[in-house]
Amino acid sequence: MTRGTTGREGIWISSHPDRLRRRTEVVAVDPPYARTDDVGLVIAIARYNADAFAEAYRRHAGAVFSLAQRMLWERALAEELVQEIFLRLWEQPDRFDQARGSLRSFLLMDAHARCVDRIRSDSRRREREERTARAAIVADYDIDLEAYDLDMAEQVRDAMATLSDAERRAIELAYFGGHTYREVARILDQPEGTIKSRIRTGLVRLRTQLLDRGIDGSWIVN
Q1: Domain ranges in the chain?
Q2: Alpha-carbon span 120 to 42, nearest angstrom
């Protein structure tokens, strides 16, 4: 026989362990300082209260990150700047003046200023790198060598002009265009053997022309 008791309003409540039903109420607990206003948070942060700092971060870090990402374009840089802004709040909470605006406005203005500083710093760094690169180019510049290269190029162009059109075109594609004999043959729609012959003949004539101009043509390999 099942034992039990009569509850209020005559409802029979079984006392058998298997038939007991317990109702559990879930009570939501607000995080620490969730109901504290921003001014109170800053006061608590000044006393090195980590819970107050965590609440300030929870409320405002998203807005700071959005601004930083729009200005810096890179997620990693924006995340780094958010950490910097909140570290400054933790170390110097007295910088916040409630008479000049809300805590969010203060953090956003601080983030904007830091973003501008970062952009200017990156610009100056790039300018220094460019100036250094230009200085290195100027330091390595040899005007005599440059004049020699220009003269050599002019001599080669003149020598190439003495070749037939078919020889010159085949050599230009093979030597200056980087194509294989087979590719040159396909481009010019000529047999590969014909292309090889034209290139060989043209190179011999080109070497002779350069030697006549007093230029070593040993670099020409056929």
Answers
A1: 38-139, 143-212
A2: 30
Separation between Cα atoms, residue 222 and residue 220, nearest integer Å: 7
Mean pLDDT to the nearest integer, 188-194: 88
More confident residue, 97 or 8: 97
Structure tokens at 191: 């047999």
φ, ψ (nearest 5 deg) of residue 49: -90, 110
Encoded tokens for 142? 């040899």
pLDDT of residue 220: 60
List the Cα angle 170/172/176 in 5-degree steps. 135
At the second CATH level, the architecture of 38-139 is: Orthogonal Bundle (1.10)
User: Does the pLDDT at position 157 exceed 50?
Assistant: yes
Residue among 56, 77, 54 at smallest CA distance from 67: 77
Distances (CA, A) of 98 to 1, 39, 56, 118, 210: 72, 7, 15, 27, 84
Are 173 and 201 in contact by the 8 Å Cβ rule? The answer is: no
CATH 2.30.29.150 fits 143-212, yes or no: no
Q: What is the mean pLDDT of residues 27-55?
A: 84
Tell me the pTM. Answer: 0.46
